[in-house]
Amino acid sequence: MTDQTISKDLGGFPGEPSDFYARNMWVGVRLWVAADIFFFFAFGFAFFYLRALNSNGGFHGPNQNPSTALGVVVLVLTLVAAGVAYAGQSQLRAGNLAGFVPMAAIGVASILVAIVVQCWQFGEIGLNLHVYFGYASVYIGWTIFWILHLIATGLWLETMLAQAIRKTGRVAAMVPAAEAYTVFVGYLTAVGVVMFVLLYLIK
Q: What is the C-alpha radius of gyration for the chain, rounded to an integer number of angstroms?
């Protein structure tokens, strides 16, 4: 970025390098992803540990078969959200704010529908009756926190969408945030793929 006023537009200080905000976003989102990987790793470890232990055959209890079809729907929606994030980022890099708006709108809608469908799944897993079985415990814990991540991600994208619609900032100043968002939603989609394989295919 060569525009020397970008940092000032984003609340920077006089004399601050114009790419300071962009560098902070680049480093910050990668540090956050690296830390968050350890959070979801705990659920992966619990899945394999409890599955191997299978105390008294109680890892996978009765009525613990969430619909694979709905799981596929959630996975596809998150892949769509990641795909339009990359497309929207490309539009901003090209200076096309109008092209970013529909991509962001599709992303927000995909995330919202994915959240609704994933919540629907809780009715099939036996949230209240079978939570003490190993599989259900991992499934419920993992998906609840994944939903919370999706909510935060959707809010992040919604703020960028509102900024683009209202044209409250210049396109060049929105690029670092869009790039950071793309990295995070890509990571969260990868977590969703792993989650789908373990909780719907392997069980």
A: 20
